Amino acid sequence: MKRETKLKVYRALAIFTLLAALLCGFGLRGRAQNAETVLDNAAAVYQHSNGITADFTMHTRSEQQRVNESFEGKIQMKGDKFTLVTPDMRIWFDGKTQWAYMERSDEVNVTNPEGEELQLTNPAVLLNTYKKGFKATLKGESTSTNGKAAYDIELIPQKKGDIVKIELQVEKATSFPSSIVVTAKNNLVSTVRISNFKTGVNQPDSFFVFNRTDFPDAEIVDLR
Questions:
Q1: Segment 65-74 long-range contacts (CB within 8 Å, at least 24 positions apart)
Q2: Residue 218 pLDDT more than 60?
């Protein structure tokens, strides 16, 4: 895999991780007493959401790496499956195999994510393992960008890795996920804001599989 392609693939996977954590905030309710209650409820609600779709805006910045970029995208999830669309990339994941299509190079990288990589790209795995992998704290309340009261949750990894902390903001009254900020050890700060979302979008399993006929001229690079 070319270095540029690899970086874009992993950047897109990181974006998905942020969105997965953010969207799973649907389970939050006004009576939530602590972060554990919030996340337990979020995991249960996601499992019964019958499919989620959302538009998002992503902003990434790092003075150290001289990165400052913003773009919009769309994600759809069902169980352990997802599709992610950004201006220059599309990703499909059917629960086992992942296809990453790079528009500029007309190339598709095929992989089978495992271990830590799978945890970072699977919302169900992320939420169901937070008790083992993260220390969750309900930091308090704040006001979202929409001017509504929100809960603030902080997730700190128990083991050192690429992520230093994750900060979630979820509106109290509607359970609407307002924003998520992920700080990485290389001082890369990524912020995601949701502009639209729907639950009950029950896409067929084939929707999460790369369709060769839609990209007849694309080069397939099998990295499994």
A1: 65/186, 65/187, 65/188, 67/188, 72/195, 73/15
A2: yes
